[in-house]
Regucalcin (Penaeus vannamei), 327 residues
Amino acid sequence: MSGVEIKQVAPSVGLGEGPYWSQEDKALLFVDIVNGDVHRLFLETGRHQVLHVEADESGASVSLVIPVEGDRDLFLVGLGRSLAVVRWAVSDPDRHAVKAEAVLHTVDPQSPTNRFNDGKCDPQGRLWAGTMGFESTPGEPRLHQGSLFRLGHDLQLSHMVDKISIANGLAWSHDKKTFYYIDSCTYCVEAFDYDDNTGSISNRRPVLGYKAAGLQKDIPDGMCIDEAGNLWVANFYGKKVICVDPHAGKILRTVELPAQLTTSVCWGGPDYSTLFVTSARTGLTEEQLAAEPGEGGTFAITGLGARGVPPTKFKADMSLLRAKLAK
C-alpha cells in the first residue's frame, strides 16, 4: 500500500492487548495479559517502563489499562476477574512491581477461571469491560461464560450483556448514538443503539459478518474508530487489520502485518494519525515463531491517510474513589 509504513516499536510479549495513547505523556500504554504486566512506551525518547501487577485471589492476568481522570498516577486495570486501581508514576523505575491499591469489583463467581479481557471508556467516561471463559487454546474459550459490564462514575457496576464468549473490541460513533462491539466467537462486528445520557444499549444487530466477508480463518479482536467514523479491527489469526464502513457493512481496506496474531488497535501520536497494533505469540509453535519473529510485537502504522480522536479517561467521582483507596 503506497505510503504506508509499518514499524515494530516494542519488543515481543506473550499476549499484547489494550493499547491506549496517553497524549499527556506522549506514550503508548498496553498490557501483556499472560505475564501480568503493563507497558508504557515513550515514543519520543524510547524509554520503556514495565509495571508488574501482583496477582490477587481472582487471578494474575492484567487485561486492560485506562488512566483515571484527575490523578495522573492512577489507572484502572483488569486483574483476573477483578477491576482494580493501581498507582504508577512516570518517576517510578523502568521495572517496577505493585499490588493493587484497591479492588473495585470482582465478577463471575460462578466461573472462577474467567478473566477480564478488553475494556474502554464511553464518551461520558464510564468504563465498559467484558470477561471471557478459560482458553485451552488461543481463540478457543469455554463458550458463553462471560459478560459485558459498565462501571459508572459512582463506581457502581452494571451488567449489560450476558453469554459473551470472548469480550473484545469496543467503539462509539461520533454522534454518540451507536455502540460497536465484538464478541470474537460470533465472528461478527455488531452494533447497539446507545443512549449517552443513561449509558443504556438496545437493538443489537450485525455490522459485518466475517464469513460473508470472506474472512473464514480470521477472528475479530480489538477495534477502534477513526475521525471519519470507520472502524479498524485487528484480526487474530489473520495477520492483518481491516477498515470497515459500519454503515455499508463493507471492508474498505486491509493492512497486512508481520504478525499472525494481531490483537488490538488504537490511534495515537501527536495528531492521532498513527495506528498502533498489538499482537501475541502465546500458543504459537517454535516453527511459527521462527518464520515470523514479529509475533507478539507492537507496531506503529503511519501513512494511512486517516486519523483517530483522543480516547476517554475513566471519570470517577473522586471523593468515592479516594474513599476506596483509603481503606
About this structure: The chain has one domain: 5-326.
